[in-house]
Amino acid sequence: MKPYYTLILPILSSLSFFMTACSDDDEPNIPDNAITVNLMNSDNGGTTIGESDVHINASNNFQSSYCGIVDLGRKGNFNQNPDLSQIAREVAVSPGNFYQIVMAGDIKEIAGARAFPVTGTYYNLYVDSWIYDRDKAISGAKVRYAECTPTPVNIPEWDTSYPIFLKSWDDGRSGEHATYTFDKKVKIGTNYDIYDAVGSDLCRSLTVKIIDNKIEFSNTSYTPGGKAEVMMYVRQESLYTRVHFLVSSSI
User: How many CB atoms lie within 10 A of CB 125?
Assistant: First the structure.
């Protein structure tokens, strides 16, 4: 019979590999352009993140007067679009957690939920560790952060324009109409503006109706050569954009 230690060596080797693999998986994925900074708390200089006013206060919390801060926990990452579901002006600092910082003034409520513009920039941030003074009291935190831009999926670029040509109803109704449909995941804001083209009356008679992810345009007046522009906001999850519909009358 072989000595028992010759049997357990392969097992120990396998366990060592498994433990190493798990440790590697726990390492945060930080991009090369991330900036490392020693963020001292307000009792030790009060440094801030980038061009924001986010700092660590005397209670060792992130705090801001004009930014929103989101704690993404340990499962966050630097590729994540803004998450506005749990946004606050002050949140606890926890080493090992990811955070996001957005300008509060950039946030709008679109179709019943907070959203961030596709043209905006924000910070993704990771807290490495606490910084201690010579008395072993917390004096700040070592953080890594990067300025990021959103990655929209089902919504167009900012200020995209769509030509809309009204046509007569197929069922014999008077007037004219047209529809435009976005992806099913897109939500359309109910606040919109209609602008008239020079010398046109279509603006006064054009009706806009929003049904889920679809927009219906209709007109019952005689507006030969009439043109109008409809500007509105659309959202997909936490991102929003502005679009223009260039509507032309056929009657």
Answer: 28
